[in-house]
Amino acid sequence: MEQRTVLVVLFDGVQSLDVTGPVEVFAGAAAVRGGREPAYRIHTASLDGAPIRTSSGLMLVPDSSLADAPAPHTLLAPGGLGTREADPRLIDWLRTNAPRAQRLVSVCTGAILFAEAGLLDGRRATTHWAYCDKLARDHPAIEVEPDPIFVRDGHVATSAGVTAGIDLALALVEEDLGRDEALMVARYLVVFLRRPGNQAQFSAQLAAQTAQREPLREVQQWITEHPHENLCVDSLAARARLSPRHFARAFQTETGMTPGKYVERVRVEHARRLLEDTSDGVEEVSRACGYGTPEAMRRAFVKILGAAPAEYRRRFHAPFAAQQAPALNG
């Protein structure tokens, strides 16, 4: 099997987890192969080869300068505060050299580096939710998708904030080496293999703004605590002591989300937790979350998470049922 070189670009102000998360996945994939040749060769490089300081103050020592780095199969651009005013020399290097890689991968705001280098024009991409609007505004040629934790478009893959880089790296290992090896890596990293790429970046409670008016805030909280109740607009409006039309308009204005969408997200979030933490059947979970039928819950899961409830549960628990694998260091 061909050994794939993963080149990780380092710069001052990089987010350390954007680097170490994917690196541990690729290194783990090398470890679980036992005596076989490691599937990945990991190489880190900064512009001049000098140590860099991450956004948390941690110092990282690269293997070489970018000029002396080996030709990569996979070029990985992490994010961090250093992407806000990236060194023009780094952008020039990416513009010239990145197209030679067989696969381009960004984590978090590393997508901004690719965008500045023109590598995402005409493509679908994502980044940390807090920067999606900026990416779309500054680079209209990119089709920015703010919800998924990662997006694949041909040989280019972009991921959302921080830990989403681990999800993307696991997806790439599964693509390269197969599900069994990816499962073993996930198991020893104690992570879920794998959150579907189009899973929302955050829960409904985090995605929506908190309403300013107390009646609307109370309704938001009541929805999260009673997903099994009748949550139609008329019922919620009565609880807020507003007319249905006024309530729907005010709720969307203050939370940035329609009541229906908020309810949908809350119910899916609650159902996910039940599937992860209990042995309740799909029909029982659907009743507990206010779905009229298991089919209604299945449609909501496929729409938001890209996987049916049974498949979601199987993916979540798969790492813990995987066969014993060689222990990874640490």
From TrEMBL:
Residues 217-315 form the HTH araC/xylS-type domain. The keyword Transcription applies. PROSITE patterns: HTH_ARAC_FAMILY_2. Keywords: Transcription, Transcription regulation. The keyword Transcription regulation applies. It comes from the Bacteria. InterPro entries: Class_I_gatase-like, DJ-1/PfpI, Homeodomain-like_sf, HTH_AraC, INH-QAR. It holds the Pfam family HTH_18. Signal peptide: none annotated. This is GlxA family transcriptional regulator. It comes from Streptomyces durmitorensis.
